[in-house]
Design brief:
Structural class: alpha+beta
Number of helices: 3
Strand content: 35-45%
Oligomer: single chain
Distance between the termini: 62 Å
CATH class of the largest domain: Mainly Beta
Order of helices and strands: HHHEEEEEEEEEEE
CATH architecture of the largest domain: Sandwich
Helix content: 10-25%
Largest sheet: 5 strands, antiparallel
Number of strands: 11
Length: about 220
């Protein structure tokens, strides 16, 4: 067979090799960020977090320069933010003694369309003045979200059945919860305490609640 007659097969083989070797375009975020780019995952993660929405029409414009004002927006959307509250509340009694001594209102970092992580840390200290009746009592503490009443893990402790020499019975309960909220949204979280199986008198609770929001989950 002559070399001339082999040329169509050679061209087909080269074309197939080019098609196989060509980088595939990203299909999950931006059409101009190749899926085999070393920056693909980082760009997608920033998009998920609401730190960037790209330039326009589903493009990221990866080769465009960044202005100082744009850089400031990127950094602010991506920086963690901390909010804290420390307050005291008298616990009220219906069937059990309960209350929400501390709350924080947070805004998730990033812009609409992404997702933010909220890490909440709290401590509630329950103080019963004078005599404590029908104790020891079970003390439950947890953090909940105002908008849908979703709550984090409960922590338990026992309020002593007898007051100390100062005439007080005290117990402290640490709580924590990590959850997500849509980027750019605002949510209020509350530290709640509930006392079961007892009738302590003149009960107050001091709560401390801190929330740190970050854009990347």
């Amino acid at each position: 067979m002559s070399r001339r007659s082999n040329r169509p097969w050679v061209m087909l083989a080269l074309l197939a090799a080019i098609i196989i070797a060509a980088p595939a375009a990203a299909t999950d975020r931006f059409g101009d960020v190749a899926s085999d780019s070393v920056h693909h995952d980082a760009v997608s993660e920033l998009s998920d977090a609401g730190v960037t929405a790209g330039c326009a029409d589903g493009r990221y414009c990866p080769r465009d320069p960044v202005l100082r004002e744009q850089m400031a927006s990127f950094l602010v959307r991506g920086l963690p933010r901390a909010t804290a509250n420390d307050s005291v509340a008298s616990l009220t009694s219906e069937n059990d003694f309960s209350g929400a001594p501390a709350s924080v209102t947070v805004q998730a970092t990033g812009t609409a369309g992404g997702e933010g992580m909220v890490s909440l840390q709290g401590t509630v200290s329950v103080l019963a003045e004078g005599s404590v009746v029908s104790c020891p009592c079970e003390v439950e503490a947890f953090i909940y979200r105002d908008s849908d009443d979703a709550q984090g893990p409960s922590m338990w402790a026992q309020l002593p059945g007898e007051a100390t020499g100062s005439g007080r019975a005290v117990v402290s309960v640490p709580v924590s919860w990590a959850t997500t909220i849509p980027s750019g949204s605002t949510e209020t979280f509350r530290l709640a305490v509930l006392i079961n199986d007892g009738q302590p008198m003149e009960v107050t609770a001091q709560g401390t609640l801190t929330a740190i929001t970050t854009p990347l989950s």
